[in-house]
Amino acid sequence: MINKDPNIDKLYQDTDKAQPPKAIDDAIMARAQQAHQPTRLGRLRPWLAAASVLLAVPILWLMLEQPELQQARQESLQPEPVPSVPMSTDSAKPNAKAKTSADTIDLQDSETDQDTITVTGSRLRHQEPESDAAGLEAPAPAEKKRATAKEVQQDNQAFSELKTEQEAMAEDNMASAPASYVPLNTQMQQTAEAMTDLIARLKPEVLAETEQAMWQGLQQQINQQQWQQSLKTLQQLKQSHPDINFEPLNALLKNISTD
Amino acid sequence: MGKAMNHFVFDLNIPLYNGFMLRRVKRASMTQKSDAQLMSIYAQNNIHSQRAFNILYERHKGPLYRFVLKSINNETQTDELFQDLWFRIIQHKDRFNPKQTFTTWAYTIARRLLIDYYRKQGRRYQQSYDDALPEHNDEPSGEYTLPEQVLQQKRHAKALQKAVTELPADQREVFLLFHESDLTIQQIADITDQPKERIKSRYRYAVKKLKNTLQVLL
């Protein structure tokens, strides 16, 4: 046990008893009071946590469900496959813009429907130059109604003549269009099949992994009609198999790629 | 009628009086609470928390302030360190262990702040270079006698204050904790994380040096 030195202690007690400045006292008291503010919420912390979990779980569930919903929507909104044979220009609506999505098509249809119902004379006149085919069925404008009967008859005759001419042209086009496009597709398919046979004949039985991959790649590229890439792959195969005659295949590929 | 009225007024006054007395008792009981109890109340964040903190602050602000001031002997820095010290006490009020004494906890924080301060200043917190010396158990001999005149006492007190600032840091620390903060040797050992015997040794060396310095000064 050790005791304080009495003389030193007595002398020390006589020293200046400094105190912190008032400003510091106030700052510390303010901080102590502030410290209560967030902790008042602290009592509610378990409830807040429970509430946040209750909110978060359904949101998470919705988020997890969302991709499926989106996928389903996308599937439903996907446009129908465009036929390979192009439609006749006369049969298509002349003012149709190059939009392919189902939404825009639906909108357009509805708009055109509305047009046919609420169309005015001025609107029809505006459409006249571009709606030679589609605007045939449009009702006569108000101005024309007021015209003489003779004029109306002349107009009707002119329209009917035009209509018959256009129908004839449309029939011609419909008949001629497949003739020009369908053989090209079949020709390509036939060439691709011929090339596949050729590859099957040329392909050696024993191959390294990389070579196997190259052969498979060539086959896939031909199937997907990627002719330029097929030519490149063929060049690589030529280098790896100098003994194989690739000329027939090369010629076919060059022909089809130039076409 | 008059009697009934008086009775009614008296009946009304009883609860008011009781409430007033209850508040007084509560206030009195709050001041009688120990530091650990006050700290626990403050940590509970109830309506009495602020009052508990006020009492605690009033009790310890002086000794803590002087401990910091006499340790670094720089008033501006002392203000900053002292404020930082209490901010930390407030911030970590939930970490206070009621089994521990408040003073031990507060002075431990203060000591760490001082060590950080010395480190920032580029001064090493001096370890006792006389620890290696053999400990001698001679009690201070008290070779000098204190003058009785008040003026002289004040002069001596100033001299002592100056001598304390000139002590090695670890000895000064023990001396201040012992005399300024009225801590026990065990508490000082806990705060400084040193064996009790070393604390005793440091104190003896501090007193011896102070006496020698005072003899020269006076």
Tell me the radius of gyration of chain A: 42 Å
Order of helices and strands of chain B: HHHHHHHHH
- Overall geometry of chain A comes to elongated
How far apart are the first and last residues' alpha carbons of chain B, in Å? Answer: 82 Å
Rough outline of chain B: globular
Q: How is the quaternary structure best described?
A: heterodimer
Radius of gyration of chain B, taken over Cα atoms and rounded to an integer in Å: 24 Å
Cα separation of the termini of chain A: 110 Å
Strand content of chain A is: under 5%
Helix content of chain B: over 70%
Query: What is the number of beta strands of chain B?
Result: 0
SSE string of chain A, helix = H, strand = E? HHHHHHHHHHH
Q: Hey, roughly how much beta strand do the residues of chain B contain? A: under 5%
Helix coverage percent of chain A:
over 70%
> What value does the average pLDDT of chain A take?
69
Could you explain the architecture of this structure?
The complex is a heterodimer of chains A (259) and B (218). With 259 residues, chain A is mainly alpha-helical. Chain A has eleven helices and no strands. Chain A has helices spanning 6-13, 22-34, 36-43, 45-77, 102-118, 121-127, 142-145, 149-202, 209-223, 227-240, 247-258. The radius of gyration of chain A is 42 Å and the shape is elongated. With 218 residues, chain B is mostly helical. Chain B is 73% helix and 0% strand. Chain B is built from nine helices and no strands. Chain B has helices at 2-32, 35-44, 49-72, 75-91, 102-121, 150-165, 169-179, 185-192, 196-217. In chain B, helix 3 packs antiparallel against helix 4 and helix 3 packs across helix 5 (102-121). Chain B starts with a helix and ends with a helix. Chains A and B meet through helix 1, helix 2 and helix 3 of A and helix 3, helix 4, helix 6 and helix 9 of B.
